[in-house]
């Protein structure tokens, strides 16, 4: 019967359909596995933009030790990273560089806006050289408020991002 | 005012260190510095103030090069701590203030010589091309290099003779007024 | 200046041997700034620092805010050294107003300022460890500085941004039993940082990487107007706590640490010696401090009324002399406020130190300048 259905003309279509069915069937368990891998390897890009980097550094210190959550490993090349933590104020000179860094990162990529300046401009809301938040530059996943946020707040923000990734679709269907 | 504050603290302290001068004749040393400059340049300069550890001198831009040279060679000052511009729109002038200190002469360690000069202020500035110009002090005090670049971009005061009048802190595409002028208003103000 | 190119873009002469490299702003060895280096093989022939990535216009914004509202702003350039960052501003406003600060407040200020100097230097040392690939030297200082951050948190309630100094004194008195806790923590802290010598300063690998790199002679250090530990590492004995004592530093026994070599090793060792000295100062201050008394006087309006007045005050911060030039016209906002910061003054030495060095030595020379880009850009 299968032999009658599949002719040389429609073989491609048939295989494509079969693939779709298979993909839908294993999407849920596979997606879970992919997301599980992603949430334990959130490595940030090494780009500091302002003074919140002090508390970002303190989060890696022995007292807070953020690496026990599998996130914010302090080293790594841009091409191996999937997280960008915007550490504070974005000035007009830094904004194009920030976007350039973001564009060079491989998919999937997530953005954490750390500090009041990265969210709304913060204390520098009326400065001539500061962007009022980074929403116009990058798509932000998690906002971490504070000026500067304590390391605990940053850790909580990262855990929220992990929760978010768990509920995201692992792959995009065309 | 500041002298009064110092007097009270020096009365309270148990034993004065030998290096510290008695409070009563504090401006004497500062006066001797300003006297030396007045003696050399006469009415070309104007002594603005003589305070504790601070001597303020005002010079025309034609004479600032000579005065700075005398300050370095004759008075042993050797570095510039800060160069700040101050905008005075009502006087149509921009003041540039050099704070000059000394490392090599231990008697001058406390002293800061405040050397002020003024440049013409343009209503519609074109930085680098208008009349807002001052002679640079980079050939006398090497340490002004970055400070003068900053004053150029923040106030539009071009320093003639400075080899490197490029932009330093502002973004490369900055096309507005120099931001620290008084007629540059920030958002919502 | 060439008319054709927009300002800020230098003409780079293309040579087949010389290669131009952009280091930063996204680079583990640059921080918040870009260093444009030209290299011939492995050797740097020219270097052009390009700061300004964190230029937030503090000085302009200060002209729109009154003297009290400016306090949280002016500590933001160096949040981990916030007491020292505020110090010259507060001293300047006090001189403009003619206020005399209570003695206990002066001692509290000295203690806070020294604690902050240690907190700053420990962070600097931790990052220096990262720049040299020495992970232990990141973990140890980053963990030990939390001890002192705890102390500052007890005083002011915030981890790093204290906003504790105000014109006329300090915001709050010390908490009860602070003296004992502080003494215990500082003693332990001193014991800990003495152990760094074994792992870092006597480490032959570190010595071979930093010795004789980026040598700044005494004459050049004076000519370039460098300040702080860079200056003292080049053999100039200049510390404002000793040379122009402010508040109660006159009554304390302060020693400076001077080294003659002027290389990266000396520049990295002087701040560490300064921390040991800070522990001494804190102990003396705790002993000599009046046990009770007011810590803040009420501000009165400027008796001089309207009229131009200017003041230039400077203190010794973690990065060297930090000056504040305030021009007042009698209003509640400053007419002009200029911060002359140590980082910006030390930056001028970078092109001189890097010329002729190997590219691999760039991070060690750059960070040994005790440079904090956020402060330099203001």
TrEMBL record, chain A:
Q: Where are the annotated coiled coils located?
A: none
- Chain ranges of the NADH:ubiquinone oxidoreductase-like 20kDa subunit domain: 51-159
According to its UniProt entry, the protein's GO biological process terms are: aerobic respiration; electron transport coupled proton transport
EC number(s) reported in the record: 1.12.98.3
Which Gene Ontology molecular-function terms are recorded? 4 iron, 4 sulfur cluster binding; metal ion binding; Methanosarcina-phenazine hydrogenase activity; NADH dehydrogenase (ubiquinone) activity; quinone binding
Question: Which superkingdom?
Answer: Archaea
Q: Which Pfam families match?
A: Oxidored_q6
**One term under GO cellular component:** respiratory chain complex I
Give the main EC class.
Answer: oxidoreductase
Keywords noted in UniProt: 4Fe-4S, Iron, Iron-sulfur, Metal-binding, NAD, Oxidoreductase, Translocase, Transport
Q: Which InterPro entries match?
A: NADH_UbQ_OxRdtase-like_20kDa, NADH_UQ_OxRdtase_20Kd_su
Q: Which family does it belong to?
A: Belongs to the complex I 20 kDa subunit family.
What protein name is recorded for this chain?
A: F(420)H(2) dehydrogenase subunit B
Task: Give the originating organism.
Answer: Candidatus Nitrosomarinus catalinensis
């Amino acid at each position: 019967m299968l032999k009658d259905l599949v002719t040389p003309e429609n073989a491609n279509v048939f295989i494509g359909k079969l693939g779709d069915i298979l993909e839908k069937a294993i999407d849920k368990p596979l997606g879970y596995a992919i997301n599980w891998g992603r949430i334990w390897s959130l490595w940030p890009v090494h780009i500091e933009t302002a003074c919140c980097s002090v508390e970002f550094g303190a989060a890696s210190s022995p007292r807070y030790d953020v690496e026990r959550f599998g996130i914010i490993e302090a080293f790594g090349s841009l091409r191996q990273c999937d997280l960008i933590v915007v550490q504070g104020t974005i000035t007009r000179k830094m904004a194009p560089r920030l976007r350039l860094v973001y564009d060079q990162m491989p998919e999937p990529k997530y953005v954490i806006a750390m500090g009041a300046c990265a969210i709304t401009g913060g204390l520098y809301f009326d400065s001539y050289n500061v962007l009022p938040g980074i929403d116009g530059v990058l798509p932000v996943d998690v906002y971490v408020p504070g000026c500067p946020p304590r390391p605990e707040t940053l850790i909580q923000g990262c855990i929220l991002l992990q929760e978010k990734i768990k509920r995201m679709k692992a792959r995009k269907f065309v | 005012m500041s002298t009064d504050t110092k007097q009270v603290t020096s009365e309270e302290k148990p034993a004065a260190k030998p290096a510290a001068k008695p409070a009563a004749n504090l401006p004497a040393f500062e006066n001797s510095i300003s006297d030396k400059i007045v003696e050399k340049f006469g009415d070309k300069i104007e002594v603005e103030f003589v305070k504790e550890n601070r001597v303020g001198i005002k010079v025309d831009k034609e004479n600032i090069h000579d005065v700075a040279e005398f300050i370095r060679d004759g008075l042993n000052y050797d570095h510039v701590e800060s160069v700040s511009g101050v905008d005075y729109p009502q006087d149509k002038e921009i003041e540039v203030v050099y704070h000059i200190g000394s490392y090599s002469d231990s008697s001058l360690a406390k002293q800061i010589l405040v050397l002020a000069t003024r440049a013409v202020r343009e209503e519609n500035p074109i930085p680098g091309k208008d009349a807002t110009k001052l002679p640079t002090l980079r050939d006398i005090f090497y340490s002004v290099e970055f400070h003068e670049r900053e004053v150029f971009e923040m106030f539009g005061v071009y320093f003639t003779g400075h080899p490197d009048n490029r932009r330093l802190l502002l973004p490369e595409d900055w096309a507005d007024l120099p931001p620290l002028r008084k007629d540059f208003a920030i958002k919502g103000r | 200046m060439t008319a054709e190119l927009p300002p800020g873009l230098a003409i780079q002469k293309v040579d087949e041997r010389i290669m131009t490299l952009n280091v930063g702003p996204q680079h583990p060895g640059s921080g918040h700034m870009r260093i444009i280096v030209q290299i011939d093989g492995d050797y740097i022939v020219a270097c052009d620092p390009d700061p300004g990535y964190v230029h937030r216009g503090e000085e302009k914004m200060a002209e729109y805010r009154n003297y009290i509202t400016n306090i949280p702003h002016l500590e933001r350039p160096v949040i981990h050294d916030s007491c020292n960052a505020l110090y010259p501003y507060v001293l300047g406003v006090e001189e403009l107003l003619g206020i005399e600060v209570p003695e206990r407040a002066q001692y509290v200020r000295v203690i806070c300022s020294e604690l902050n100097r240690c907190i700053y230097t420990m962070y600097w040392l931790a990052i220096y460890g990262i720049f040299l690939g020495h992970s232990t030297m990141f973990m140890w200082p980053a963990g030990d500085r939390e001890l002192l951050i705890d102390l500052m948190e007890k005083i002011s309630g915030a981890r790093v941004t204290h906003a504790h100094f105000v014109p006329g004194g300090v915001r709050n008195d010390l908490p009860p039993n602070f003296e004992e806790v502080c003494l215990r923590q500082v003693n332990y802290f001193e014991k800990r940082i003495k152990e760094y010598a074994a792992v870092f300063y006597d480490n032959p690998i570190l010595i071979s990487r930093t010795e004789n790199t980026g040598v700044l002679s005494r004459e050049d250090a004076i000519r370039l107007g460098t300040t702080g530990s860079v200056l003292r590492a080049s053999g100039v004995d200049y510390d404002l706590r000793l040379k122009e004592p402010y508040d109660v530093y006159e009554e304390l026994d302060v020693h400076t640490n001077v080294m003659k070599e002027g290389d990266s090793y000396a520049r990295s060792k002087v701040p560490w010696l300064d921390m040991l000295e800070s522990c001494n100062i804190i102990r003396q201050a705790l002993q000599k401090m009046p046990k009770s008394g007011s810590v803040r006087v009420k501000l009165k309006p400027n008796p001089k009324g309207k009229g131009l007045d200017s003041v230039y005050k400077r203190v010794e911060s973690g990065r060297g002399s930090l000056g504040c030039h305030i021009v007042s016209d009698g209003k509640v906002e400053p007419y002009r406020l200029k911060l002359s910061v140590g980082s910006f003054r030390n930056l001028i030495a970078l092109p001189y130190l890097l010329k002729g060095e190997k590219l691999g030595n760039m991070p060690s020379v750059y960070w040994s300048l005790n440079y904090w880009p956020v402060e330099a850009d203001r």
